[in-house]
Amino acid sequence: MTSIGEQVERRWNRIWATAPYAVLLFACVVEVLTGTSVPRVLVTLGIAAALAAWHGWFVLGHPAWWDRLTWMMAVYYVGVLAFTTLLLSRSDAFEVFLPMCFLLAFAALPGWPAYPAVLTANVPWLIVSEEDPYTKLVTLAMSTSLAVLIGGMMRTMEREAIRRRMVNSELVAMAAENARLHELLLSQAREAGITEERARIAREIHDTVAQGLTGIVTQLEVAADAVPAPVRHRLVTARNLARTSLVEVRRSIEALRPGPLQDARLGDAVRQAVTTWHEQYHVPASFTVTGTPLPVHSEVEVTVLRAAQEALANVGRHAAATRVAVTLSYMEDVIVLDVRDDGRGFDPSAATGFGLTALRQRVAALSGHVDVESAPGAGTAVGVSVPVIEVDR
């Protein structure tokens, strides 16, 4: 996107590049109207056409030359003076082109070379003029001084325009950088706030739920040794559930704290969940791992583990199944958990339980998806797929 200063500069470049054609055309029209000899007029027009082609080749045909190749534009300017001298020697109508030579000196030649070029712009007039030397000298001094004054003003305005454009560009760049830094600071502040809140929640869970479960496990261990055998079995089951819950709470605390997990423990956690579920419901359950286990981010680990627990809990409460199969598959870029049972099944479109809805939300937060395949009397298959977010070992 170009700035206003650049647009103005391009507009002025187009003006000085095309202005000589307008002046030359006017002189040619005057020559045609006032010329007395048709052959002479035709030759003069041919020279004017050659000057137009010369200007077009150097300026319009190669616009980069006038800004970079000073020596090429010096050749161009010498050619312009030569053609102008020849035209003046044939017709006074082309005297209107003389001021254009002064302007082209500053337009075509950058820096100090423009000032000697202004002096040489008088050469065509000096060669063809028939006035006395004193008049020539006065005219030369006045025209050159005026041209230098106007050219100097043009150069000053050009430098000021360039300076302002550079300053504006720097200001725009600074504003963009400030906006970027502001956005970065806001992002870091948000991340710091999230991290701090997660750490606070982790501390609260550790100091309340985790400590409470630890006390429950301790009390159940003591009570199991002081009760009859039939009751002891129930206490042992309750103790194992409390221990499993304590492990899950600690895993949740670890997931809330910043930083990745260092070991690939997802398979062991799901296997323990399957074992605990089997001990609770006394339903045969198998667990299989396929692919190469990878250490994954704690949020992926917790999401897959919670999915396994939720699916198994639903089987235990509603399915009346006689067999359950759980498969954890490590693929190239996803982890897939499949929980299948041979229970009574249900209509997935009519399922409105909070557990399944929460599971879908948790998985969707990691850009994963949950597929439930079931029908009344045909069992249920729950598939959970989440992308792999690896961590270094």
Please give the CATH architecture of the domain at 262-393: 2-Layer Sandwich
Find the structural class using helix and strand composition: alpha+beta
**Number of H/I helices:** 12
**Helix-strand pattern:** HHHHHHHHHHEHEEHEE
The description of the largest β-sheet is: 5 strands, mixed
The overall pLDDT average reads: 77
Total strands = 5
The neighbouring-strand order within the major sheet is 1-2-3-5-4
Your description of this structure?
This protein is an alpha+beta fold. Among the domains are: 4-130, no CATH class; 262-393, Histidine kinase-like ATPase, C-terminal domain (Heat Shock Protein 90), CATH 3.30.565.10. Helix content is 69%, strand content 9%. It has helices at residues 4-34, 38-60, 65-68, 70-90, 98-108, 114-120, 123-128, 133-224, 229-256, 266-281, 298-319, 354-364, and strands spanning 285-290, 324-330, 334-341, 369-374, 380-387. The chain has a 5-stranded mixed β-sheet with strand order 1-2-3-5-4, covered by helices on one side. β1, α11 (298-319) and β2 (324-330) form a beta-alpha-beta unit. The longest helix has 92 residues, at 133-224. The two termini are 48 Å apart. 24% of the residues are buried. The model is unreliable at 258-264 (pLDDT under 50). The chain crosses the membrane at residues 15-34, 41-59, 71-89, 96-114, 134-154. This is Oxygen sensor histidine kinase NreB. It comes from Saccharothrix violaceirubra. It catalyses: ATP + protein L-histidine = ADP + protein N-phospho-L-histidine. It is found in: Cytoplasm.
